[in-house]
């Protein structure tokens, strides 16, 4: 029989398979515990890939090695094997149970993992049985006390993970919300006394504490009060995570508080609250801060330390075990203990820990406690950091520049520009926080690779052209020769076959991409090259939050339905500050959301490129409109899950518009000009007497020249002394708010594990101000009367 695997390789595998995979399992745990906290701070795709692979391999490696150990227990010892070596390997089985419990920094990679908590609970039982089977096979075993202690620690850690998954499941969130009205009904229905501590305009209750936290003057909240309010909102508005509604009392309480906040205070509370949501959904923090979690962790860590002490001081290891196995066992003990201690060090300075500790200080008598000042001092290190940047002709802006290790979210927004992508223009950042020097270094490193890649592409293109020309020339020559010699017909067949080989490989490549359905993935990779990040500016957030609060003063109007039967995104609330708003309403009213977004995106870019940025003519609304335009375009094209409720046929419309733009640029020989300003000028210079929608009707999905018509209408507003960019920014605010109100709930929570999105902050602010769709019918009724 032919051996596919050489004998020496097979022998090495048989000897080191258990040892190697045990070390692999331990290494994966180390990777997860160190890298998992970083994913809420950055959308880096390489980090996400590493964590995804590690998360999947963690369970696989532990399950696989337990099976190998069970199989190993039934083998006969070789002459050179130590007498108790198999018994030591039986000690490794409960270590794998510890690994299956997973690190504290990540219990679920995605929300779907939380829904599978039943499977993990069953896995706990099966793994316990498997481990017990391995131990029973090794009996009599002098290490049974150590194994028992490790079994206790492993079972408790696996139980912690299962409970964390259960608490983060959507069913549990809905169930927890059903319990709240019963506990508060007596308080809300009983007669009110003058000295009752009910929420008023000046202060609100924090949980069930006796002393109210007052909001006497906006801008005076301390770091600890920011944390406490965020924790209060997290615990009382969990129903938002599963798209539940809340009552008018809750709405009024939240609205009264948020409308009196300053812009930065609201941003800080929202980012801390979203941090609590992330920890509750993806980590063990919510379990470890309960008395059950504290008890299980104390017992588990105590059992692990006791097992290590017995193994080190009471076990004779010189002749009973293999030297490599002793080293591996010590590695498992020491690294396991170190990882547990690292987990505790990560949890102790967390926001959740500070919020729980600060709740102890609830009485006026304890107001002078040293705990709160210490917490305030420490939280001061985690506050938002702003950096002054020059842009827009030298105008200075404050941009978010919090150090990476203390960030609660990425602190940046992704931008994508349609015209820049269509002409393959280089990325131009409005705010370059990282600095030009750093980017120049990266370009210097990557430039040779990019240069060689471009040369290779051009060479391949030339070779393809030469191949076609040579094919045509040889075919003509042989055709003339074939008139005199019949044998030439066979030469024609051979030549045609040779020249068809490149086309054959092209056909195979296209067929494979279609068969594997990776065309969208390849398109996304190509699109990502034109996506870049911009830091959040204080002006942008201030503008958003101010617009949100101003909507509280407007009378509520019922959203009217479009011809398609869906509620229009304009919702009757949009108010254009201009003399003749009807000229622009045709691009808003009764227009699909995705079509309107692309129209305004291209028109905004055309108008933006027509103006030259200087300190004298710099309009803050111009920059805000540009950033919001590129950000919303990024969401529409690159975040289909998040925008699924409003995206419509956005990608089809994008491709049709791109095809029309490429055709137009090719006609004017600027397809590879990399010049956005020139491309914008050429689009605006085209004379179109009839409106494009009247020519093409509803059959066309492209909006390029309709956007040009919109840009022309916007430029006319300057002649009527209307603030064009104020009008444009108002439209982008409405587009942003509509997307925030209608973004998918699951995708919204998944973004918290990918660095976060500005859209989620807007959604949460809308909900807390009672402007979203999270109100009960009674609350909506009361809102309409305001």
UniProtKB/TrEMBL annotation:
Keywords: Membrane, Transmembrane, Transmembrane helix. The chain crosses the membrane at residues 16-35, 47-70, 90-109, 142-159, 291-311, 323-348, 487-508. The keyword Membrane applies. This is DUF4220 domain-containing protein. Residues 187-196 have a biased composition (Basic and acidic residues). It holds the Pfam family DUF4220. Signal peptide: none annotated. It comes from Arabidopsis thaliana x Arabidopsis arenosa.
């Amino acid at each position: 029989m032919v051996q596919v695997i050489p004998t020496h390789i097979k022998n090495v595998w048989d000897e080191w398979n258990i040892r190697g995979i045990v070390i692999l399992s331990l290494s994966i745990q180390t990777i997860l515990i160190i890298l998992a906290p970083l994913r809420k701070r950055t959308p880096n795709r390489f980090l996400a890939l590493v964590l995804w692979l590690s998360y999947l391999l963690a369970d696989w490696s532990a399950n696989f090695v337990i099976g190998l150990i069970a199989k190993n227990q039934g083998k006969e010892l070789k002459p050179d094997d130590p007498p108790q070596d198999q018994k030591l390997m039986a000690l490794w089985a409960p270590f794998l149970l510890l690994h299956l419990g997973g690190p504290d920094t990540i219990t679920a990679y995605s929300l779907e993992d939380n829904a599978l908590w039943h499977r993990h609970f069953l896995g706990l039982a099966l793994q316990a049985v498997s481990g017990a089977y391995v131990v029973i096979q090794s009996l009599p075993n002098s290490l049974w006390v150590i194994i028992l202690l490790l079994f206790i620690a492993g079972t408790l850690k696996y139980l912690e993970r299962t409970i964390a998954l259960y608490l983060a499941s959507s069913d549990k969130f809905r169930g927890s919300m059903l319990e709240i009205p019963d506990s508060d009904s007596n308080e809300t229905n009983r007669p009110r006394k003058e000295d009752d501590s009910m929420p008023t305009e000046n202060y609100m209750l924090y949980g069930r504490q006796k002393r109210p936290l007052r909001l006497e003057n906006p801008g005076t909240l301390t770091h600890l009060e920011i944390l406490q309010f965020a924790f209060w909102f997290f615990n009382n508005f969990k129903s938002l995570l599963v798209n539940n509604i809340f009552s008018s009392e809750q709405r009024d309480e939240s609205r009264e508080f948020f409308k009196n906040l300053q812009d930065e205070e609201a941003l800080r509370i929202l980012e801390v609250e979203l941090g609590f949501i992330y920890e509750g959904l993806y980590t063990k923090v919510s379990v470890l801060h309960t008395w059950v979690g504290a008890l299980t962790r104390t017992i588990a860590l105590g059992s692990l330390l006791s097992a290590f002490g017995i193994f080190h001081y009471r076990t004779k290891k010189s002749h009973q075990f293999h030297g490599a196995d002793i080293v591996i066992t010590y590695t498992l003990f020491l690294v396991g203990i170190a990882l547990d201690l690292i987990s505790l060090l990560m949890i102790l300075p967390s926001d959740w820990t500070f919020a729980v500790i600060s709740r102890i200080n609830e009485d006026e008598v304890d107001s002078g406690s040293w705990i709160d000042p210490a917490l305030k001092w420490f939280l001061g290190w985690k506050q938002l950091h702003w950096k002054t940047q020059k842009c827009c002709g030298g105008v200075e802006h404050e941009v978010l520049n919090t150090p990476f290790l203390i960030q609660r979210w990425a602190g940046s927004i992704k931008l994508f520009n349609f015209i820049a992508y269509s002409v393959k223009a280089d990325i131009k950042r409005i705010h370059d926080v990282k600095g030009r020097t750093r980017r120049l270094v990266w370009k210097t490193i990557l430039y040779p690779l990019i240069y060689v890649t471009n040369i290779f592409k051009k060479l391949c293109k030339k070779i393809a052209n030469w191949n076609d020309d040579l094919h045509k020339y040889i075919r003509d020559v042989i055709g003339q020769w074939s008139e005199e010699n019949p044998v030439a017909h066979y030469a024609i067949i051979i030549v045609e076959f040779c020249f068809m080989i490149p086309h054959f490989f092209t056909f195979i490549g296209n067929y494979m991409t279609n068969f594997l359905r990776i065309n969208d993935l390849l398109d996304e990779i190509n699109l990502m090259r034109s996506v870049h990040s911009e830091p959040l500016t204080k002006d942008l957030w201030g503008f958003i939050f101010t617009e949100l609060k101003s909507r509280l003063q407007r009378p509520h109007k019922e959203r009217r339905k479009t011809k398609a039967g869906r509620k229009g995104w304009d919702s009757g609330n949009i108010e254009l500050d201009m003399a003749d708003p009807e000229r622009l309403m045709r691009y808003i009213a009764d227009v699909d959301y995705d079509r309107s977004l692309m129209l305004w995106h291209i028109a905004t870019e055309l108008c933006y490129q027509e103006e030259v940025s200087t300190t004298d003519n710099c309009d803050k609304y111009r920059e805000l409109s540009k950033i919001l335009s590129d950000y919303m375009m990024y969401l529409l094209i690159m975040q289909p899950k998040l925008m699924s409720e409003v995206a419509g046929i956005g990608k089809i419309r994008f491709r049709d518009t791109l095809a029309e733009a490429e055709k137009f640029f090719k006609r004017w020989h600027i397809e590879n000009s990399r010049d956005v300003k020139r491309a914008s000028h050429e689009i605006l210079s085209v004379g179109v007497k009839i409106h494009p929608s009247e020519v093409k009707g509803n059959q066309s999905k492209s909006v390029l020249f309709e956007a040009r018509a919109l840009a022309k209408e916007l430029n006319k507003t300057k002649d009527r002394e209307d603030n064009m960019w104020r009008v444009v920014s108002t439209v982008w605010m409405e587009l942003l708010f509509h997307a925030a109100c209608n973004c998918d709930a699951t995708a919204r929570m998944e973004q918290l594990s990918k660095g976060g999105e500005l859209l989620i902050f807007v959604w949460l602010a809308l909900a807390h101000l009672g402007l979203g769709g999270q109100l009960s019918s009674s609350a909506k009724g009361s809102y309409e009367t305001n």
